[in-house]
Design a protein that fits this description.
Radius of gyration: 15 Å
Strand order of the largest sheet: 2-3-7-4
Helix content: 10-25%
Order of helices and strands: EHEHEHEEEE
Mean pLDDT: 88
Shape: globular
Number of helices: 3
Largest sheet: 4 strands, mixed
Distance between the termini: 40 Å
Strand content: 15-25%
Number of strands: 7
């Protein structure tokens, strides 16, 4: 195995760790699992939203968070990889949200059950809070 190699995940459906999910109990989830018959990027969002989006479409979800907050959503919490070097981060996150840094690597739940135990992310994560930091 070469240096710098990152093992490809067997699943693309990673559930939010329980200790984070409980903090946002009662919040609307625009991209739940299993996938609903509606598109969370195409519908208006309510006042309180928690988003653990598919990380492959992170730029679209970051833009949607910023847009929905500008249009009146009181608080949107976006769980995301700490990819602070991306255009999406500098365009949609940095000017519109407060950042909560998460200590350690999150252990996501494999919703496809290709793994029997929670799996530590191979990257650090943050929560971008549109509408103020909520801990």
């Amino acid at each position: 195995m070469a240096d710098g190699y990152i093992k490809q995940a067997k699943s693309s459906n990673w559930g939010t760790p329980a200790h984070i999910l409980t903090r946002f109990e009662g919040y609307f989830d625009p991209c739940p699992f299993p996938q609903p018959d509606w598109d969370g990027l195409a519908i208006p969002w309510p006042q309180w939203v928690f988003v653990n989006p598919p990380f492959c479409d992170l730029a679209e979800w970051a833009k949607k968070c910023a847009d929905e907050h500008r249009h009146g959503a009181a608080h949107i919490a976006l769980l995301m990889p700490a990819r602070v070097d991306t255009k999406a981060f500098h365009s949609h996150i940095l000017p519109n949200a407060e950042i909560e840094f998460i200590k350690g690597r999150l252990k996501f739940v494999d919703l496809d059950q290709s793994s029997t135990l929670p799996v530590a992310a191979p990257f650090p994560c943050i929560i971008a809070h549109f509408g103020g930091l909520r801990k």
